[in-house]
Design brief:
- There is one protein chain.
- The chain is mainly alpha-helical.
- A two-stranded antiparallel ribbon has the order 1-2.
- The longest helix has 24 residues.
- The chain starts with 16 loop residues before the first helix and ends with a strand.
């Protein structure tokens, strides 16, 4: 079985992780419309580790910018939909899905911080081989 090394979304480059997440035209469009700064010659580049370093360490401290993990995830999912279902998702839908999921996650984190969970104390007795609560 022959596997085509070209990107299934654009057909223009080898389908590397970096190409798929950062260089493929639909991915580039998603990054361009996202609230994440994309300075030319800095991000995105042809180096996966440089791109990830930019996202991890070079973004300003801003709540709107922490959505990048979800953007990466939805770019990846859009690629998988193309591969397995031959469905194309446009970059605007990809970015909006990422923003929606990031906001949902942030809301749950806020709720979790407000909740206090009871602490369970236990004492381990090695002779009993059971936990005593």
């Amino acid at each position: 079985m022959r596997v085509d090394p070209l990107c299934v979304r654009c057909g223009m480059g080898a389908e590397t992780i970096n190409h798929m997440l950062f260089e493929c035209p639909p991915a580039l469009q998603a990054w361009a419309i996202a609230p994440i700064p994309t300075p030319p010659q800095v991000f995105p580049t042809d180096a996966l580790y440089s791109n990830m370093a930019h996202l991890f360490w070079n973004l300003p401290d801003n709540e709107d910018l922490v959505m990048y993990p979800w953007l990466l995830w939805y770019i990846w999912k859009a690629r998988n939909y193309k591969v397995f279902s031959n469905d194309d998702y446009n970059p605007q839908d990809v970015m909006e899905s990422a923003v929606t999921e990031a906001r949902a996650w942030a809301a749950v984190q806020t709720l979790n911080q407000k909740m206090t969970l009871p602490k369970i104390c236990y004492k381990y007795n090695p002779e009993d081989k059971i936990l005593n609560f």
